[in-house]
Amino acid sequence: QKEVEQDPGPLSVPEGAIVSLNCTYSNSAFQYFMWYRQYSRKGPELLMYTYSSGNKEDGRFTAQVDKSSKYISLFIRDSQPSDSATYLCAMRLQAGTALIFGKGTTLSVSS
Amino acid sequence: DADVTQTPRNRITKTGKRIMLECSQTKGHDRMYWYRQDPGLGLRLIYYSFDVKDINKGEISDGYSVSRQAQAKFSLSLESAIPNQTALYFCATSDYGTGDTDTQYFGPGTRLTVL
Predict the structure, then answer these.
(1) Is residue B36 a contact partner of residue B46, using CB atoms and an 8 Å limit?
(2) Strands ordered across the beta sheet of B4-7
(3) Residues 6+ apart with CB under 8 A from B36
(4) pLDDT for the residue numbered A33
(5) Residue B95's Cα: distance from chain center in Å?
(6) How many angstroms separate the CA atoms of A31 and A94, rounded?
(7) pLDDT digits (tens, 9 = 90+) for B18-59
(8) What are the residues facing A51 on neighbouring strands?
(9) Between B111 and A97, where is the model more confident?
(10) Residue A50 CB contacts under 8 Å (≥ 6 apart), including other chains
(11) How far does the CA of residue A80 sit from the closest CA of chain B (Å)?
């Protein structure tokens, strides 16, 4: 079993839809959880960061961590064509340790 | 991210050739990383460096070497390239201890093809 599992998709939705992206993980010691967004031919950029369990909201984006289920989610409300990208989850044991990435989910939002 | 630059952006080479990929950053970060990205495999860590005198192997270091020439420069070398090293390579930087939670900032990537 991989440490971090992420469905690669692709996921296609119409503009305005609510999108749910998910990752599961096996190591219960992970404490820091991140979502990166990667546009085609670009490097990943940090989108959301969460420490331990709970929710974090930033505009149309909400990151959710459920440590009891070892499951993290990224929700995108009112999705836009500009949200079309690959979304990678990442996590680490503690600050300063290596990031473990999921394989990424490719999202396409059509207008 | 213009603060992290990678050269070259694209490179095609032949099996057995020596290749160097370079990374420079103007963010003033101490920590630098090299990753490779393959379809279906995601991002995997090759090497990382927490300062000029500190070099560490990552998940897939075999066939690669690195050099940290200065705080701002971190190079990745393939001593004898092979076709399964064809991939997209990313450099990243981070600055632990500033309250930034060690966020990694990625360069634009180098697309390497080994024939």
Answers:
(1) yes
(2) B4-7, B19-25, B73-78, B65-70
(3) B43, B44, B46, B60, B85, B87, B88, B89, B90
(4) 93
(5) 16
(6) 6
(7) 999 999 999 998 899 999 999 878 899 999 998 899 999 998
(8) A32
(9) B111
(10) A32, A33, A34, A56, A63, A64, A65, A72
(11) 22
Structure tokens at B21: 């990929």
Per-residue pLDDT band at A93 (split at 50, 70, 90): confident
At B107, which amino acid appears? G
Put simply, the answer to whether B106 touches A43 (Cβ < 8 Å) is yes
Q: Please name the residue of chain B whose CA is at the shortest distance from the CA of residue A86.
A: B42
